[in-house]
Task: structure prediction
Amino acid sequence: MRHVIKCADCPLRRFDVFDRLTETEAAATQRFKSGELRIEAGTTILNEGSNAAQLHTALDGLGIRYKTTEEGRRQVINFVLPGDFIGLQAGVMGEMTHSVEATTDMRLCVFDRSDFWTFVKGNPERSFDLIWMASIEEQMVSEALATVGQLKAEARICWALLRLFRRATSVGLGIGDNSIPLPFKQQDLADAMGLSLVHTNRTLRRLREDGVAQWSDDVLEIADLPALIDRAGFPGNSEPFAQARPLI
Result:
């Protein structure tokens, strides 16, 4: 049987981006945790419309959140990185309003949805953390909507690359000082930013030629961070995860 990590020893807790847990909070989360799950790339973790029996925290690996239209088209709404809590909608609303899929092999903490309200009622500090998580997701969605609705293609792509770079480096995924693994497809980025694949490819090529950023072989290299921030169309300090955030 594979080793199951205790909440008190969670490797994500060493990163400054996450709040420090007290021993009491770690013990309560440990009681809520029912196990761990390893899944392969391409696996659907949660399905839109399902009343999933389990909730998850991503321990390692990357994924995407997306919605599917009646015509079968996919809209990427966010990217999943280590530390993200997956399935809160099902825990509160009874069913998922979007799907979650693993882009790489992933390791997930598993929580039984049947224990969700017991955990919330018995741990008011942790229930506030869940509210905070929902609020930050709303902030990110609203900023993404403003970006897609009001900015030109280059600014949209720069905004997305900047967000991914900031989020990835905050959880230890940096490669050197200016690169991160980015094993998503260009189509995923195009879907998320409301652009065609051709337009996305053309914009990425221009950023490479201008010496701003290069995305190839599943690695994003930021060659000129100030230029990327400037082209993103938002202030450099406009960052949803600028303050420490909860970890369930």
